[in-house]
Structure formats: C-alpha cells, structure tokens
Amino acid sequence: MFTNSKLAKSVRLACAFGAVSTISFSGAVAAQEAEEAADTVEKIEVTGSRIRRTDIEGANPVTVMSRVDIEKFGITSIGDVLQAIPSAGSAINTNNNNGGNGTTTINIRGIGSNRTLVLVNGKRWAPGLTGSVDLNNIPASIIERIEVLKDGASAVYGSDAVAGVVNIITRQDFEGVHASGYIGQYDEGDGNKEQWDVGFGAANDKGNVYFNVSYVEEEATLAGDRAISAVPVFGTPEGFGGSSAPPQGRFWTFDQAGTSFSEQGDSAGGLEPWVEPDSRFNFAPFNYLSTPQERTNIYSQARYELTDNLSVNVTGFYGNRKSEQALAPTPLFIGTAFGDSGFTLSADNQYNPYGVDISTDQSVLDADPNARELFLFGRRMMEAGFRSFKQNVDQFQFNGGFDGVLEFADREFYWDANYTYADITQNQLTDGLLNMNRVALAIGDPANCTGDCTPLNLFGGSTALGEGTITQEMLDYITFTAQDEQSTSLESYSANISGEVLELPAGYLAFAAGYEKRWQEGYDQPDAIIAAGITSGNARQPTEGSFSVEEAYLELAIPLLSDLEFVEQLDLELATRYSDYSNFGDTTNSKVGLKWRVNDDLIIRGTWSEAFRAPSLDELFSGNSDSFAPLTDPCNGGAAANPDLPGCAGIPATYEQPNSQIRTTVGGNANLQAEEAESFTYGFVYSPEQVDGLSITFDVFDIEVDNAVSTVGAQTILNACAETGVNLCSLITRGAGGNVVDLFNGAVNLGGQTTSGFDYNVAYNFETDYGDFRVNWDGTYVDERTTIVIDPVTNTTAEFNDAGLAGDRDVVPRIRTNLAVTWSYEDFTANWLVRFIGHTTELCSIDGDVLDQQLCSDPSLEVGGTSYNELDDMAYHDVSLGYAVNDNLRITLGVNNLFDTDPEVSYSTFANSFDPSMYEIPGQFFYTRLNVNF
C-alpha cells in the first residue's frame, strides 16, 4: 500500500514509534510534506473509504495500532489487545469459562461484537454462526498495523459496520526472515503462555511473496488457585451461593398432606436435615479461571505484476484452534420444580432410604398415598469427573484477484476484481453429561432395569473428585460423550473501481464504485441425545440455514473550497450502498462526511451515516435450546410477600425460589428483519506547528440502533410480568407451586440501543539528551448507553441507561483510558502502559439484610430492599524493557499488572466474583520475548 514517498515515510515513522492514536500524525509536518509531494505520492486507501487519495486524513475517526504497539501489551492474542483499547466494550475472551467457547471478539462501543465488522487487508473476514469474528485465529506475527474505524460504515462496507470497522493490515513487501519466541506465566506459577512464529519474505520489482507459520499454547489456571474465584461469592460466609446439588444429594419432597421435607444425604447412605447455607456445595474450585488453547496458523500471500497495469494477488490462511472449558462435575437435577415428569425413585431401589416411591408423576402419587412428590432433587456427580468442553476448530480462507490501472481521457482509474472463499468447521466433545432416560430407568423399578441397566445409588457421595458411591458400571450406563459439529462458509465475488473524473476549482472530484455478491451458510448439529432433550446439560435443536446478498455502492469525494483564509481545504464526502438480501429484502444506506482543513495545524471533521446489520445465521435459524441463567424471581415468597406486585397474584406463600439458575429457552427466528442504525461523529485534529511532535484529536460520537435483534432479557421478562401482571407474562410458565418451569427468551426485532460520548487522544514526541520519548494518552468517555425495550404486548417503551453500570458480563465504565510512555535510547527501549478503568455501580442484593450491610457499598436499610455496590476506579500497569543485542536480535522482558492489582469484586457477575470481559485474572504476569530478523 505504501511506497517510499514522504507521506509513506511519515506514516511508517508514526507507526514504528508505537502511537496508539488516531491518525493525527498527518498534522502540520506530515500534511505539509504530503502537499509538497502530492504530484509524486502514490494514492492510498485508508479504512473508511474506497477512494484512493494522497491525503490520508479523511472525515472519519480512525485509530492506528502498529506491530510495535501490539507487542507492548505482552499477550498472545490480537483479540485481547483490541479488547484493551478504550473504545472497546465487554466481550467474550478466553477468561470466559462458563459460557465461553474459546473465541475472543471485539465489541466497539459496547453495543455488540456482531456490530463491529472485521476486515483483513480490506476484505471481509469470515464470521462464525453468531456473526462475530474470532480474533484468536488471526496471528499477531503477520500484522503490520491495525486500523480501527470508530464510525458507522455500511455505505462503504455493507452489513455489520454499525459501531465501527477493524481492518487488519498484513506485512507488505517484506524481505528476509523474521522469527520470534515468547514465554510467560503468572507469579503463582500457572497460566503458562508460549508463542513461536517464523516468517519468510521475498520481493523484487515485479512482485512479492510472504509465508508465515505461528504456534501459540496457553495453559489453564484454576479458579480454586485464586482467592476471589475459589468460592461462589467472594467475601460471603461458607456455603453462601453454593449449589443445591451437593455430592451427598439434596432431597426436597412433599408428602400428600403438603408437608415439606428438606433433607440431604449423609455419609452412611441415609438422610439428615438440609441446613442453609452450610449444606450447599462449593463448586467454584473445580472450574477453569482462564481456559487453555493451542493455536496453529499458516498464512501466505503473493502478488505479481503481469504487466505494467495488471497484477494478480492471492492470500491463503489455515488456522487450527484446540480449546477447552471445564466446569465442576455435572449436577443432576430432577423434580417438579423444573417441570419434570417420568422420574420415580422406586421404593424397591436397593439404595432408597425412604422405603416409599419418591416421584414427579401424579399417577404414582395417586396410586400410593404414602408416596412423596419429588419437588427438587440435586446431586453433584463427583464420580463422573469434570464437565469438559473441547473444541477443535479448522478455519480456511482464500482470497484471490486481479487489480490494475486503466487509463482513459488522460486519467488513471484503479480497479480490482476479487474472489473469497472461507470455511470454519468446529467439532466439540463434551464429557461428563448424563443420559436422563437412562437415569430414570436406573433409579426406577428394578424390574425394568434390565440388560446393561445398572441400579443407581444417589446416596452417600464423596466431595473428592472421582470418588463416591456411584460405581464405574453405573457411570458407564448413565454417562455419554456428546459430539457436536458446527460449520459456516462464506463465498463472495466483488469488483471495485476508483479514480478522479472531473477537475473542480478546489480540486479533483474523485469516486469509487463497486459490486459484490456474497453467500453465507452454516449449520449446528448437536449430539443426538442433546437434540432429543434427554441430557443433564443444556438441550438444543439443530440449526441450518443460508442467505445471499447482492450489493452495489457509490462513493464521492467533492472538493468544495480551497486556498482561502481559514479554509485551506473543504471537502464533502458522500457514499451510498444498496443491498438486496434473499431472506428479508433490500436496504439502502448512505453517508455524508465533511472535512474542513482550517490551516496546516487544524482539521475539523464530521460524518452522518446510516448503517445496518443483517441477522446472523444463528439468530435466524438456531433451534430452541436451554440456558440456565442466574435470575432472581421477584415473586419469591408468593403473593403474600409481594402485595404490590400484581404479577405475583395466585402464587402460594410457600413458594421459595429453589435454585438461582432458572431454565430459559432461547432460539432463532427466521422472520427477523435487518437492524437499522444512524451514527453522527464530529471533532477535530490539532497539530500545532509551534509545538513540534504534538497532536491532539477529539471526536464526539452518537449511535442509535433501531429494530435491534435481541432477546428481551430473562430478568426483564420476570420483572415486567411481576410489576404489571400483564406485560410479557405469556413468556413465563410456572408450576403449581409457583416455581418458574420455563421462560422463553428468543430472538426478536424489538427495541434498540443508543450510545454517545467522546474519544480523545493526545500524542507528543520529543527528544532529549537522555533519549527520545513518546507519550500517548488515548481515552473514551461514555455519556449514555441506553437499551430500549419495547413490550410486544402493550407496545410501550422502556429505556435503561447502562452508562456507569455493571452487570453480568457487561461493564460500562464512563471513562476508560490508556496512557503509554515509550523511551528509546541507543539500543534500549522501555514501555510503560497504564490501562485505566473507571468506576461502575451494580445491583447488589445479597440477602436483603446482614450481608448487604457487610458487602455492598450502598446497602439497603430495609429487608428485601435494593442494595448497590460500587466497583472503584482502578488501573493496570504494564512495563517492558527491550535491548537490541545486535542488528538481528532483540530481547524484551516485561511484567503485566506490575503492582499485582486485583480485579474489582462484582456481586452481579455470573462466576468468579469479577467480570473477565473487562478485568484481568489476579496476579502479575512475567514474560520474555526474542525477536530475530535476517
């Protein structure tokens, strides 16, 4: 892309120095050089526009990260690096164990990772079924720089470019051999990470070729090895927040007179009283805190000039990821509390201490007046070992095409024609699950337990992993290994042309136009037992579907004024794109941008754009599946305890929420429409000539997403029904005892999101007798991030502003900044990076009484009241020191989280008492890196 022009050199210099900043290095000096060299500089394409131009500064706010910047973070995944930039919101990563799948995504502006488009060299990178791109599969060693557009860009790139675009630019024209090795681990001696890569490149006047192989291995850390994650809720009494499925079993039954019996198994195979919370099981130590991965990637690219005006280019990528998540041994839950039927612990079962039938079925209860209702049974199957979820993912992507220059009417027009094919296939093995049909037979009438069936002993278990009263023969009968397969593919053809068509008084009118045809398809085939719904884990139905789209776009850059006082240059940028989808119809999205270069020091810029997002394959076609979200039923205690909540009417006073996790059904919707969005950004770039090396940028953003594809939210459904007695109540199914049997929380076009705030960057380069310094301060302030929920029953609208709040897997600090200081002197380089996360507030209802007073920073003074907890401001400090041994070898030593700062304790997060989507796992991380070039 860049040649040996003065402009290209200025870009390379800024990137090499490690500026994590907006492209404001094209200020006074670079802009002047660019104009002086305008006749000789090669026109380049910058993320956010298809028009090639000599001035790299457009109306769009773009952040650039160089290869040097990436290495400053001292981590192995480019996804983790991008999640650390201030404009990024909470997103899944490898520290997500329960609910994770080995991927790491980027979520610009925090409005959803599938609303950020990911490109590699300007071409769409294949997403998974959910529409999000796994950044783990893009090796850091192939990257020259990353351009992050923080603006809507559907008019230029199409679907998904709602909050922004991440464009990863690979090494170009590299000659020689480069290799690097990286090793690191936590001060606790765990979480080892290794990265090894080697690249080869050759280039001449006709073309270039580059080949790279990289390997990454990341070992796990266990939740039990950190104090904050070794218990279900940090800081609470022993047993609090634990599972109601202990290894000895919990038995909550009712006799036919309505008397409740809450008991647990004892060590001798009998029963003893259940005691809250002492009897609950601490499952936390058995979970991963950070998950293991092994990634192997092969990347190659080549370009060759067939003639002076025609070139061919090809890119090939293959990546394999092996990843795993591990949870505590599976809990076996049975009972009418979950809407179950068909389960009877037979009186004739040799291990049954009751001596009578314990059943979920009314017919059994009617047949024997001594039989008891099995309201809730929970047992931790320690004998079966961990629940292990292992992914083996293969990703292949090929890009090929031609590009060249057409000369017409004494003008040059740049064109390209491209083909892309990508395929992602994932196989997952899950161990530790139970076949519930076989469980029913094994605890039922022994006369029906024939053949391989072995009567099951659910009493007198052990807290030691792999030990207990369930024999291997029993396990062989009731357990199974699930084998799931997922696949997605992307295929596209595209053609683009750009150039200057007309000379106006203020400059040349330039354009870009193009056409694209794209196909996407995918499927998810769960194991047959999971699809049949007879698993102890989450059941789900198969997913399969496809869609295609044809698109055409036009982009114009119109110079309006130039060479006037206070108007060195005024340009208008226009773009529009028409998209026709096979499944929901067509949409047209446009963009208007204005760039006003006041003088050599100051640029004022602004854009207004429309954007859209087509529903993903998963949102459209996924079958119904189970989820067990941690929820609080507002009707706990029935109508008597909640007289002000009409939705609790008719629920008996004896109702007590039996488990913190409530069965929720989620699924796709083939009738979904596209999301629509509008974004508005405006700001300035200031590089004063009087202060050499100083650059300041400031940009305001405002994004509104309508017709959003989302779920209403399980907790929102519960709360709305309770508060109104009407709204969303049809989505809730309760049992006779008042317990929630099922809650439907499927995908709908309902409501939207808005977010607003501003980004800022201050970068300053200066030289001293003691070395050269680069100071870079990059930040984002979130003024508003509102979720808009429309009630489909009453058509009323509710808005919830999450700015400054924290909740499960979603932290929205108002302020997030990175301050980077780089020092370079002779053969030494030192980096200091401060990552600041502003304070947030979360709901913190622990038990409405004593624990609220002890743990929540703003407790309620009333029993049952709402308490809050503040997560304070905090910062991570990362440092590194590099030494160039010679021209070919460089050694870097670094420490991430130098001051061993612990994550902020959160009581609303799902696990580990902190949110891994925003905070790091505890501990100092030490690493060393070797870079070799020949």
From TrEMBL:
Primary site of residence: membrane
CC terms in the record's Gene Ontology section: cell outer membrane
Membrane topology: Multi-pass membrane protein
Keyword S-adenosyl-L-methionine in record: no
Boundaries of every TonB-dependent receptor plug domain copy: 58-165
Subcellular location: Cell outer membrane
Pfam families, alphabetized: Plug, TonB_dep_Rec_b-barrel
Residues annotated as domain TonB-dependent receptor-like beta-barrel: 342-898
UniProtKB keywords: Cell outer membrane, Membrane, Receptor, Signal, TonB box, Transmembrane, Transmembrane beta strand, Transport
Signal peptide extent: 1-30
Keyword Lipid metabolism carried by entry: no
Protein family per UniProt: Belongs to the TonB-dependent receptor family.
Protein name per its UniProtKB record: TonB-dependent receptor
Organism of this sequence: Alteromonas naphthalenivorans
